[in-house]
Amino acid sequence: MTRILSEKYRSKVMSAEEAAKLIKNGDTIGFAGFTGSGYPKALPVALAAQIKAAHARGDEFRINVLTGASTAPELDGALAETGGVGMRMPYQSDPSMRNAINNGTSDYHDVHLSHSAAQVRHGFWGEMDFAVIEVTKIKEDGTVVPSSSVGNNNVYMEKAKGIILEVNSWQSEDLEGMHDIYSNKMAPHTEPIPITSAGQRIGSTTYDIDFSRVVAVIETDSADRNTPFKPLDDESKAIASHFIDFLGGEVKAGRIPSSLLPLQSGVGNIANAVLAGLLDAPFDQFVSYTEVIQDGMVDLIDAGKLAVASATAFSLSPTCAEKMNDKASFYRTKIILRPQEVSNHPEVIRRLGVISCNGLLEADIYGNVNSTNVMGTKMMNGIGGSGDFTRNAFISCFVTPSVAKNGDISAIVPMVSHHDHTEHDAMVIITEQGLADCRGLSPKQRAKKIIDNCAHPDYRAQLHDYFDRAAVKGVHTPHLLTEALSWHQRFLDTGSMKIS
Ligand code: 0RQ
Question: What is the predicted ipTM?
Answer without folding.
Answer: 0.98
